[in-house]
Automatic annotation (TrEMBL):
Matches recorded under InterPro entries: PTS_IID_sorb
Lineage: Bacteria, Bacillati, Bacillota, Bacilli, Lactobacillales
GO cellular component: membrane
Alphabetically ordered keywords of this record: Membrane, Transmembrane, Transmembrane helix
Protein's name according to its UniProt entry: PTS system protein
GO biological process, one term: phosphoenolpyruvate-dependent sugar phosphotransferase system
Organism in which the protein naturally occurs: Tetragenococcus halophilus subsp. halophilus
Annotated transmembrane regions: 25-47, 68-90, 142-168
Signal sequence interval, chain numbering: none
Amino acid sequence: MKYVTNFAEGFMNLFETGAETFIDWMSSIVPLVLMLLVAMNTIIAFLGEERVTKLARVSSKNVVTRYMILPFISAFMLGNPMSFTLARFLPEYYKPSYFASQAQFCHTSNGVFPHINPGELFIWMGIAQGIEQLGLNSMDLAIRYLLVGLVMNFVGGWVTDYTTAFVCKQQGITLNKKASTVTE
């Protein structure tokens, strides 16, 4: 009977922990993301979807701007997770690759720009503390991590282009390579 009771208590603890996490998110990350969505949509409405779509169209034509410049600007200006929302203006074909590049960039830029991914700042701070205890400059490491990250994020996006092409061919799917407005 003790095993059944322990199992039932553990089972209920799982849901209590889930409920606590849910309430924590409702008072922290959910309002933040909601406000960032409102801000981004306001900026898009102010600038006009046509201009933002034109920027995405121009960015999507060049692999360097698509997987190095656009992810950097969106991460720097919007942070994680809002930086992913700029993909809505890219052609369907490039969305998986943009996501791959953007997801990596939100991690590799954290040492120089901690506002991009504050949820993982504790990881960088732990590494930086170890570097500083060795008598080394943590900003040197942060900049190297950022630069290597830019190159590797570009490679990740580009490789995902090839993966997308392979899967499209395998599944007989054709994805659009031209950006269109969201309302079309």
